[in-house]
Amino acid sequence: MQSRKINWRTIFEPWLNPGNWLPCQCWQCGQGLQGDSEGPFTNLLCYSCEVNLPWIRTHCLRCAQPTLNTSQFGCSACKNYPRWHLDECHSVLRYEETIREWLIGFKFFQQTKLRKLLGTLFLEGVVNQGVELTGQLVPVPLSKSRLRQRQFNQAQLLALEIQRHSSTVNLPKTNPITRKIQGSSQATTLDIELRRKNVQNVFEVHFTKLPDRVWLVDDVMTSGATLNEIARVLKQSGVAFVGSLTLARRLLDP
Q1: Residues 82 and 22 in one domain
Q2: Residues 237 and 136 both lie in one domain
Q3: Distance CA 63, CA 213 (A)
Q4: Most buried one in 45, 94, 129, 187, CB count within 10 A?
Q5: Which residues contact 159 (CB under 8 A, 6 or more apart)?
Q6: pTM of the model
Q7: Strand partners, 213
Q8: Measured between alpha carbons, how far is residue 169 from residues 35, 164, 190, 213, 234 in Å?
């Protein structure tokens, strides 16, 4: 009788992975999660931390700044913005404290485990705001040097999370937006007016088939200069509707 070879790795591998037997912890407070609650944030956040995140419930549809009124198009923060080309802007969370730390860790310190958490936050926020998700998702491209440094584009990963859970949008394999000028200044060091000048004529469009609707995707919206410039180029190419979806919004002074 031939002896049967036992694959011990198959038997013990589940026990070698601590995630299979140690309780998950809330990313915010560190409290142990038993996985007994149902919902999108199971094994990611406890209920208390989830509801107390700086969610943007109502916002200006023109610039995504939080407002007290629903469906408001134009607010005190963006009323003086010249030549605005975006048709709608949606941001999920205010860019403060914990959200800032998570995004910095994800982008600059290779904390890739945060991808699932940030992607879930993004998707849930977009759905809860009732965004009409139809058309094509286009991640804001990084410069070649920044992409080499990080090895990934955070906007691309966030767009993938939305595309994975929505059948009404598609994400092209190759980004139709490219940077024709790679050496623009670090935008975070510039004021709003200089940000606008910094991105002028930086982007170009390469669509094989022009879509009617495009949603630009990025992690943070600050002045909106980059998103607005890409929207301008897309509109010039013949795209009828260009909106933006961002995970977080820096608050601007009114």
Answers
A1: no
A2: yes
A3: 18
A4: 45
A5: 137, 138, 139, 171, 217
A6: 0.84
A7: 241
A8: 31, 9, 34, 10, 17
47 and 85 together in one domain: no
- Domain-located, residue 172: yes
Q: Burial-class residue 168 by CB neighbours within 10 Å (0-12, 13-18, 19+).
A: exposed
pLDDT digits (tens, 9 = 90+) for 211-231: 999 999 999 999 898 999 999
- Give percent of the chain with pLDDT exceeding 70: 81
| Distance, first Cα to last Cα, the chain | 83
* CA–CA separation, 232 and 217 (whole Å): 15
Contacts of 50 (CB under 8 A, 6+ apart): 41
122 and 201 in a single domain? The answer is yes
Specify the number of domains making up the chain: 2
Domain co-membership, 82 together with 46:
no
Q: Residue 123 belongs to what domain range?
A: 58-249
Average the pLDDT over each of 3-7, 66-70, 158-162 and give the range with the smallest value.
3-7
Sorted by sequence, the CB contacts under 8 Å of residue 6 that are 6+ apart come out as none
Q: State how far the Cα of 44 lies from the Cα of 47, in Å rounded to an integer.
A: 10
Q: Let me know whether 235 and 194 are in one domain.
A: yes
